[in-house]
Amino acid sequence: MMVLQDKIALVTGASRGIGLAIARVFAREGAAVVICGRKQETLDRAAAEIAPSGGKVRAVACHVGRADQIRGLVDTTLREFGRIDILVNNAATNIAQEPALATDEAKFDKMVEINLKSAYRFIQAVAPGMCDRGSGSIVNIASISGIRPQFHGMLYSMTKAALIMMTQSYALELGPRGVRVNAIAPGLIQTALSEYYWKDDARRATVLGQQPLPHLGQPAEVAEVALLLASDRASYITGQTMIVDGGRLLPWG
Ligand SMILES: NC(=O)c1ccc[n+]([C@@H]2O[C@H](COP(=O)([O-])OP(=O)(O)OC[C@H]3O[C@@H](n4cnc5c(N)ncnc54)[C@H](OP(=O)(O)O)[C@@H]3O)[C@@H](O)[C@H]2O)c1
Fold it and tell me: How far is it, in rounded angstroms, from Cα 113 to Cα 93?
């Protein structure tokens, strides 16, 4: 039997990068996966790419900064699939890669809305159903920047640190009701979001020089950890933040 046989999963920000890799692995393991991103066209391409992996994929456009669109996505999923067993809050942005003193309130609000409040809104919409059934798994994609601040990334780091604490807080309250809530903190992963750090040879070499595993992280390496946390194999794990960073945060060198 496949690990996620008959499970219904909702993965945000799954048109590319880490979210797409997670959706692909979930589909491979037998889940029906609902993916979202802002553009239907890009999502449809992603769904077509995932389809051969197995499972059922449904692409629904949703801007995670909009409460009404989040509600619409959750309602559509419940109407078409009946329930949500697994929620992955993955969509995020970084519009403020700059000195903290150069940021402004508009950027602050947008970063909180997209990276943090979206996860809160999704959990508030999805977790009650999980609690009623006494079963569910929520995975929030944080970052090592939420553990150690990213230089010129104050707003990003702040939202990810808060997401880790949100994870722990929900885990405390929802555990007794059968729902596990965990986070993943990736290090540098080769996606569009992080290309500033890996496209340039010198910058990439600097980061890789800080890792005992000296390769550039791939979305699939995060997806396999998301699979573990989402599945019943992680039945004794909640409130944790799994660091997937090639060992970069280890105090070495
Ligand atoms: N890459 C890294 O090195 C790294 C490291 C640590 C943590 N992370 C975290 O990993 C997660 C995935 O990042 P990634 O690197 O895979 O980024 P990515 O390649 O830029 O992909 C981001 C995904 O989110 C979607 N998205 C962005 N804004 C959205 C919005 N407002 N509403 C709905 N969907 C939205 C994008 O689709 P559309 O643009 O079509 O909407 C895309 O599917 C994020 O939480 C990120 O913070 C990444």
Answer: 10
